[in-house]
Amino acid sequence: MSEIGKAASRRSVLKGSLAAGAAIAMPTIFTSQAKAAFLNDPGAASTVTLGFNVPQSGPYADEGADELRAYLLAVEHLNGEGDGGMMNTFSSKALKGNGILGKKVEYVTGDTQTKSDAARASAKSMIEKDGAIMITGGSSSGVAVAVQALCQEAGVIFMAGLTHSNDTTGKDKKANGFRHFFNSYMSGAALAPVLKNAYGTDRKAYHLTADYNWGYTTEEAVRTSTESMGWETVEAVKTPLAQTDFSSYITPVLQSDADVLVLNHYGGNMVNSLTNAVQFGLRDRVANGKNFEIIVPLYSRLMAKGAGANVKGIFGSTNWHWSLQDEASKAFVQSFGTKYGFPPSQAAHTCYVQALLYADAVERGGSFNPCSVVEALEGFEFDGMGNGPTLYRAEDHQCFKDVLVVKGKENPSSEFDLLEIVEVTPVAQVTYAPDHPQFAGGQLGTCNPGA
Amino acid sequence: MDAIILQVLNGLDKGSAYALIALGLTLIFGTLGVVNFAHGALFMLGAFCAVTLNVILNTSYETIDPDRTDFLGNPLKVETPYIFDWFGPEVGGAMIEWSVPLAILFAIPIMVVIGLSMERGLIKYFYHRPHADQILVTFGLAIVLQEIVKYFYGANPIPTPAPAGLVGSFDFGVLLGFEPGSIIYPNWRLIYFVFAAVIIGALFAFLRFTTFGMVVRAGMADRETVGLLGINIDKRFTIMFAIAACVAGLAGVMYTPINSPNYHMGMDFLVLSFVVVVVGGMGSLAGAVAAGFLLGVLESFASMAQVVDLFPGINQIIIYLVAIIILLTRPRGLMGRKGVMED
Prior knowledge:
The complex is a heterodimer.
Chain A: H1 2-25, H2 28-31, E1 47-54, H3 61-78, E2 104-111, H4 116-128, E3 134-137, H5 141-154, E4 157-160, E5 177-179, H6 184-199, E6 204-210, H7 213-228, E7 232-239, H8 247-255, E8 260-264, H9 268-279, E9 286-287, E10 290-291, E11 293-298, H10 301-307, E12 315-318, H11 327-340, H12 346-365, H13 370-377, E13 380-382, E14 390-392, E15 399-400, E16 403-408, E17 419-425, H14 427-430
Parallel strand pairs in A: 1-2, 1-3, 3-4, 4-5, 6-7, 6-8, 8-11, 11-12
Antiparallel strand pairs in A: 9-10, 12-16, 13-14, 14-15, 16-17
Helix pairs in contact in A: 3-12, 4-5, 6-7, 9-10, 12-13
Chain B: H1 2-32, H2 39-57, E1 60-69, E2 75-81, H3 82-97, H4 99-121, H5 131-153, E3 169-171, H6 172-175, E4 184-186, H7 187-209, H8 211-221, H9 223-228, H10 233-255, H11 265-280, H12 285-302, H13 305-310, H14 314-329
Antiparallel strand pairs in B: 1-2, 3-4
């Protein structure tokens, strides 16, 4: 008996040790809110915390700073301060300017450093330590995909910032993740007709593509769109992401029979490759009896500023531009410009809109529960946010709206007036089926409330 | 053939920057025995001397133009540079346009002061410490300098164009009997190559043909003996550190029209320059220059589409691949001396 008793005791000690070990080993993210209906439920608290995860250091720090400015403005407006910005023009009238569900909005910030691991670490810290109910921001697709996966796993909503790769709402889509920004496919679809009108259908294109996820999807999208209208792709060369001097990639273009150069580059890559291309006289070149042309599929004002006069006359696409004259854009520019002294970038715009859309979804759903937010945002149609009538498609959590085709301005009147809108491409032209090959693979899955 | 000539030109152009930075690195290592990971930051500071001069020349006062409006619909604030009032719009405009060449004069004293401050204020305390300590402290210093520049100038690249008269390309095709337009090369890159050659030549002549240079070379070979002869070799080595800083800074100034400067441009060059120094042979000035041009040319050829099609990814690893091959066959590098870095 005593021996049985001893054996049982030994077993129970072992079991107890294993259970305790497992409990210690399990991340607090999965256990701290076990009794709550969803992770970081603010309950009866008078405040709710949002997590702004933006690049505060690294090459996209300026873009991150603009995103953060937009978030602070959104918090101000949600809490009933300032002029209200786009809350006044937003078609949904659920937001009252008294916070979200009556709780004052507070925020914490993280630095993504434009590195996936750093971005995940800062998002995790904001969720676990600061109790952030939603994570938003970012200036790179790699970061967006990584943080989106983390938020899905943890059980909070992720409202993506600037991310343009098809994969974010394609093969890497997640039920807890939402993207307002447009994508590579939309850039290709919007640019093609404009390029056809400007440069004709008999063109030979040479692609220089940044050697990472976003570069690949952008090259594929632009190639597919331009080839379908008759252009030929003579060469597509991958360039290392860390490349700074593109001269050895530009000179082969001179040797090819291409008459168009497509720069699938963003940020510093784009500034340098475009500058180098202009230095090598490509803008003044005549090939196949035509003027040589350069195309930059994704533009941003901050990049255009970095490239200076080299952007003049070069086509590209953008999600939004401060010179739009609809009431919503004017309200946002007024609000942002008055507070900060300069117009907002497209990154600032998409982040501001995402913050408001999240708050509105919580108000409409009546709960901070991520599953309620997902339900409220899926299939949500809205207007008055600067892009015309917009749909948050339920199948992939991608926003569908008009896309802007822009061109580097020949005679800018100020340091902000660098791009001019040449066409507002209607949403129908950039809409695709959820199972489109460029977005193949991956499952949205089901929402995770984290508890 | 024209494609090969173009890639050779590219390689020489790239190699110019590598050689200038690697030359300074080798000079510091050869004289002071310090592995200076802040050397890339000196290149970056030189580039920002050009940016700073441009900002100074563009310092303006505001007037209100009631007939035009800004993006908020308020009367437009028009900025007029002070130098337009002081020297007239034509001369003032020319000064702004030629700010990069002018920045050479602006950068020299600044880089000398920075070099002397770095050596006297920090690096001299690490002469007798292990190389690992030197690497850590200079790398830390590089990060601090980067962050200071980012604080004042932001993270975005800042366009700093060459004077309009020097923009454009030179047609080697016509000169070499090829089809016109088949071998064109940007004027400023050619100027950069010539500038690098002049600086390298001047530095070698200084070390070879002046008493000061002779003493420095003697000190590099046997510091102790030179010291025993009653020569203050430390003082000369400090001056050499300032000269190396100045060379890196001038390389940075002249690089600004090639690629818009940003705060991390030094780091982009630093790793490659160290590979250049190792391939050239630690402590060998001629080796640093030769390896700079060699790796520049190889990197250019490896970037050609035909080469990348044949060996995918070769463009990203070529420099390191060549470094491995050279170090396996010549462990001291191309022109390395026995006993250097072998303790």
